[in-house]
Design a protein that fits this description.
This protein has about 190 residues and is α+β, with helices and mostly antiparallel strands. It is about 25% helix and about 30% strand.
């Protein structure tokens, strides 16, 4: 007795379509965020230029990545977060504008909340973070650059850090659900696109 070789086509294609959908969901979310998101500037914390860029990836942390920075923000005391729990940091646009070719000012955290608010004013946006005991992760911590760019950025970072700190900000796009994707890194007055 031989097996049934006349299986309906949908039994073969349905699992393939499902798997393809799963594979495309992650870059699909990033694409959606990059198309529909609003530009937000995040202040990085001081970094060692020799640790910033290793190989083809770079790792950054932000002011809002530090738990101690968020403990002073309204709403933190009401969260009682456990490791792995998600929440939202409400960021407000800076009062000053930036001129062309200058380091843009960072958005400031003004509130933390467990729920995503749907009625934020235009000068505020919610960024989703995940509490991890000592840090907050936003999915914006690791970037990949080609080797030629990495060397140029590393040299520029060393040059800028000799002059003064706080000369690094990251430009991200944040969508209406709090998801974010990186757009570029500002080192002093130079902008490097991801």
């Amino acid at each position: 007795m031989s097996g049934n070789s006349n299986l309906p086509g949908w039994r073969f294609f349905l699992p393939l379509i499902f798997q393809a959908g799963l594979i495309l969901a992650v870059p699909g979310q990033a694409f959606y965020t990059s198309i529909t998101g609003r530009i937000v500037i995040l202040q990085t914390i001081p970094v060692d230029p020799y640790d910033l860029l290793r190989g083809y990836s770079q790792t950054l942390r932000y002011d809002i990545s530090q738990v101690n920075s968020l403990k002073t923000i309204p709403g933190w005391d009401n969260l009682n977060l456990v490791s792995g729990e998600k929440f939202y940091v409400i960021l407000e646009a800076p009062k000053s504008s930036v001129s062309e070719g200058k380091l843009p000012p960072a958005w400031l955290p003004v509130e933390v909340t467990r729920e995503l608010s749907s009625d934020l004013p235009d000068h505020r946006i919610a960024l989703q973070g995940e509490y991890n005991s000592h840090w907050i992760d936003y999915g914006l911590e690791t970037y990949y650059m080609p080797e030629d760019k990495r060397k140029e950025i590393n040299a520029h970072i060393r040059e800028i850090q000799r002059e003064e700190e706080r000369q690094f900000v990251v430009e991200v796009k944040v969508d209406s659900k709090g998801n974010a994707v990186p757009v570029s890194l500002w080192v002093g007055e130079r902008n490097y696109r991801f």
